[in-house]
Design brief:
The complex is a heterodimer. By secondary structure, chain A is an all-beta fold. Chain A has no helices and eleven strands. Chain B is an all-beta fold. Helix content of chain B is 0%, strand content 45%. Chain B is built from no helices and nine strands. Chain B has strands at 9-12, 18-23, 35-39, 46-49, 63-68, 71-76, 85-93, 98-101, 105-109. Chain B is globular. The chains are: A mainly beta, B mainly beta. Chain B: It holds the Pfam family V-set.
């Protein structure tokens, strides 16, 4: 059974940093691209970024809203995905989901999400 | 402002059919597969349709997807109260090299 479990969310002040983790199980993690998607309270889904697999040199892509502030990384030996968030803004407050990307670019499995609140 | 455009809400009676549209451009829907997601209140999104019109295992055939040009449509027949949820379309934008979602459509089963 595919499982994605996010952790690391919490309350952080504007300008601060936070690192989210996503533990994957039930599939060959190293084969897959992985995405982060967020959802601000009462709002829709917003794609945050992607890391490709080793075969594609672990290249990353980011939404314009987080580029230069957020960094996605992965550790295939630990079946884990990470999101390092720096220079956080109040508008980064959201539930952050990790999602597996399958062929065709679809997000076929999602974690339960972790809430990040940026507030003073 | 989402890259993909969906109606904010749709509604229909139990047992009826509803369609949800998703409009984009040649750089996203026009040249990439479209997926549809269902988000029940308080839960994570769930994949409903992938590669424009395919259903993952366990998704009933009441749910269907189609794509034409730069638009896609989700259809739901035999509406049930349990279908009340937010529905999102999503795809890749090849020009921007980013993932994109629609703004979401809230389905109310009256």
């Amino acid at each position: 059974e595919v499982q994605l479990v996010e952790s690391g969310g919490g309350l952080v002040q504007p300008g601060g940093s936070l690192r989210l983790s996503c533990a994957a199980s039930g599939f060959t993690f190293s084969d897959h691209y992985m995405d982060w998607v967020r959802q601000a309270p009462g709002k829709g889904l917003e794609w945050v970024g992607r890391t490709r697999n080793k075969a594609n040199s672990y290249t990353t892509e980011y939404a314009a809203s987080v580029k230069g502030r957020f960094t996605i990384s992965r550790d295939d030996s630990k079946n884990s995905l990470y999101l390092q968030m720096n220079s956080l803004k109040t508008e980064d407050t959201a539930v952050y989901y990790c999602a597996r990307s399958s062929g065709g670019g679809t997000n076929d499995y999602w974690g339960q999400g972790t809430l990040v609140t940026v507030s003073s | 402002q989402s890259v993909l455009t969906q109606p904010p809400s749709v509604s229909a009676a139990p047992g009826q059919k509803v369609t949800i549209s998703c409009s984009g451009s040649s750089s996203n829907i026009g040249n990439n597969y479209v997926s549809w997601y269902q988000q029940l209140p308080g839960t994570a999104p769930k994949l409903l349709i992938y590669e424009n019109n395919k259903r993952p295992s366990g998704i009933p055939d009441r749910f269907s997807g189609s794509k034409s040009g730069t638009s896609a449509t989700l259809g739901i027949t035999g509406l049930q109260t349990g279908d009340e949820a937010d529905y999102y379309c999503g795809t890749w934008d090849s020009s921007l090299s980013v993932g994109v979602f629609g703004g979401g459509t809230k389905l109310t089963v009256l």
